[in-house]
Each structure stands twice: as structure tokens, then as C-alpha cells.
Amino acid sequence: MDHLAGVIRRSFRRKSNKGVSGNTNGNPASEDSSIPDDCKTLVMSGGQSFFEYLVVVSLKKNCDGCYAPQITYQFPKMNLQRENILNFRKDEEERLLNAIPLFCFPDGNNWAPLREYKSETFSFVLTNIDSSRKFGYCRRLLPAGNGSRSPEVYCIISSLGCFGLFSKILDEVEKRRAISTALVYPFMQGLREATFPAPGKTVKIKSFIPESGTEMIELTRPLDCRLEHIDFNTLMQCLKSQIILVIFASVVLERRIVFVASDLRILSECIHAVVALLYPFAWEHTYIPVLPHVLIDTVLLVDLCEGKLIQKVGDEEEILPPKLKEQIRIFLDDYQQITKKSPEEINGAVSKTFMQFFVQVMGHYTSHLKESNGGKFTFEEKAFSKAVRSKTIRKFLKQFVKTQMFSIFIEAQLNKSTQNGYFQQKVKEFNEQKKTERK
């Protein structure tokens, strides 16, 4: 177990993006000019395959009498001996396969056969050495049968982030698994042959089930690509507004955080939600929504079941500007009392509120992008940090400009790779409003 933990640490460490050009993606299969640039990474996913492969991870008894997770099936079969696969690619695939079982059963190896077990859905993210990420979408269930038996995990590995869509796919997998494992793989083959839809679009998959006949399964992506991998409602149900703000303050400064929960679905949904609060920025470091016990090494420790902080650094309350923090707290308190809002409405409102925080503290960044004689842009960091009147915002910016997420964001602006993003549109509106107020 310790050896495997070391492999995971070494193999999936995020490499710094500093010095890399702003747009490193390939050409999109299809592109909609009406969609903001900062969503086009996901739009490019339209036309790609849904997944790379499906693996089944089962618990097998080892020589010590304990149960350990092992991959018992994979679809399609990966032939790592093919001559056309480069050696480094073979190493990547082998490391990934070694890591998957531990993340499918991250809650230790203290398992015993069960008679009843409610299936649960969760996900994990592995960050590779080339900065790419692979998502693991998991459904842990108890195989059909009589008597005591061990749970198993159906895990879909994909480079595409869309939790809601893959959760529906796993529903179909579980429905077929309850009848026969033989029905799972024709369905996955049909999915593999389909193309991943663009935001707001639908793809239809034909699938045959005995006694039910041929079914047409519709899979639709959300129109707003910023919100398709998150559910803020779960986070707000687990934690009070003050704790969410402490977490936000820590994640903004790129501090390490570990979340604890007995329910893997709650655990993964809350972590995806916390990362989404950073928009228009992205978490640029090791990111593991489900963390095995052997990898715990923390600064901020959050108990999602009890809704409390187990461990803090001590300065979290002083990081965010007080007035802006209070605005967010009031909003969160109000929304936590509302029960009639749909998940889509909550997701949109929460995302907008935290994005507005960044608009207010750094919306003036566009005034400090200066063009030189050669047409090259530079960013005046010191002038940017000092340009704000508020002392508390200047104090926050002094720390924030040192983060990797801020550096990568500014680099993208210098390369003009996100000129028409949703955030940039809101910044423009904010600055125009300030000009109007001065008149």
C-alpha cells in the first residue's frame, strides 16, 4: 500500500504551466462562436469519444486474509505491447491501471462480504505529469446474487469532465449489471462509437435489453459548460456559510485541504463544488476528489458529515476582504434557507456570486495589460496591486498575485487566448459601470 501511494504521488503530480503558451489544445471538432472562449475547452470535447475504457474493480482476498481491490475486467482491452504505442505512453497507462483500484476503494481494505449494500456514485481525478487530467466515474454496487458477497466498482475513465452525464451512464450500467454482466459491454460499445455532444446538445444511444426490447437512451450536456461537473447544493447542505468562506479563502491561496466524509458521493461532489468556486481560475495542483488514507497530509481538514473544521492554519478569517466576505456570507445564508430553488438555479446563483468576488477585487487588471512597441503585451503586477483604494483588497491581492492560478490566468490574457470569456464580459460591464458612477 505504501509503495502504491508513492507511485501515485510521483505519477500524477501537476507540472507547472508557467512559460507555456495560452492555447495548447488541438483543433475543435466543432465550435460555436456564440460560446465564450473560456468554455471552449469543453466545447472542443464535442466530437470526441465519451470514454477511454471501463474497468471493473473487485475485492480479492490476499495471502494475509484481507481483501484488496484488483481490476478484474477492462473494456476495451488495452494491449500495452503494441509496437505503435510509445514507451512513455505505455508507462502512463500502466501507472494509471495501478492507481485505479486504490481510488475505487479509497476507504481502506477493511471489507468483508455483505448481504446488503446501497450503491453509491463518486468520482476521482488523476493529474498526469503532462498536466492532463483523467476523470474516473465510479458506481460501487453489490453484485446480484444470494448470500454474502463483496461489492465491486464499475469505473469509467474519461478525459472529459461531466459528472451528471456520466452518472446517468452509470445508471444504465447498473441496470444492465442487475440482469447480466453480458449486457453491460454491448451498451458501452455503443457509447464508445457515439460522439460526445457539444454543450446543450443530445446524443442518442440504442441499446437492447431482454424482455424490454431496444431502448433509445438520450444523453444531454448542460448548456452552461461552467456548471456541468458540479452541484453546489450538496456543499451548502453540508457546511455553514462561515465554513465555506474559510475553505474558499484557503483554496484561493492554493493551500492543501483534505475533506472527510463517510459518503463517497458527498465527498466527491463537495470537492468538485469547491474547485468550481475559483472560476475564472482553475486549481493548478494535485487534485484528488477521493483520497486514500495513505495519502493524507493536510493543512486544512474539513469534516463534511459533522459540518465542521477539524484543523485550521489560523489565519483563514483574515484572508478575504471583510466587506466582500460579508456579502458572500449573507447570500449563502439566504440561499441555505431556500428550498424551492432547482439545482440549476442554485448552481448558477452560487457560481455568479463567487465570480463577482473576483470581478470586484481584480476587475481592473485589464488596465495593467500594456502593449510594447513590438506588439507584445506585459502585465504591470506592482501597479495592479497598488491601484485599489481598499487596504483589505490590496492586502488580499498581495498574496493572490503569488499563486500559480493567477500567473496562469494572466498568461492567458497576455496570449489573448480568452478575450471573449464570460468572466471578461463581466469585467467589462463592471468597469463600464464604475466609469458611469464617476460621472
Low-confidence stretches: 1-45, 80-85
Count of distinct structural domains:
2
Distance between the termini: 66 Å
Radius of gyration from the alpha-carbon trace, in angstroms: 23 Å
Basic shape? globular
CATH topology of the largest domain: Beta-Lactamase
The total of beta strands comes to 12
GO cellular component, one term: nucleoplasm
Domain UDENN: 52-420
Protein name: DENN/MADD domain containing 2D S homeolog isoform X1
Organism: Xenopus laevis
Summarize the structure.
The chain has 14 helices and twelve strands. By secondary structure, the protein is of the alpha+beta class.
Description:
The chain is built from 14 helices and twelve strands. A hairpin with a 5-residue loop joins strand 3 and strand 4 (133-141). The protein is globular and about 75 Å long. Mean pLDDT is 80; it is low at 1-45 and 80-85. The longest helix is centred in the last third of the chain and has 20 residues, at 343-362. It starts with a helix and ends with a helix. Helix 6 packs across helix 8 (264-276), helix 9 packs antiparallel against helix 10 (343-362) and helix 10 packs across helix 14 (422-438). By secondary structure, the chain is α+β, with helices and mostly antiparallel strands. The protein has two domains: 2-225, Longin module (Beta-Lactamase, 2-Layer Sandwich); 230-439, Rossmann fold (3-Layer(aba) Sandwich), CATH 3.40.50. It is 39% helix and 17% strand. The strands form four sheets. The chain has a five-stranded antiparallel β-sheet, with helices on both faces. This is DENN/MADD domain containing 2D S homeolog isoform X1. GO terms for molecular function: guanyl-nucleotide exchange factor activity. Keywords: Guanine-nucleotide releasing factor. Residues 52-420 form the UDENN domain. It comes from Xenopus laevis (African clawed frog).
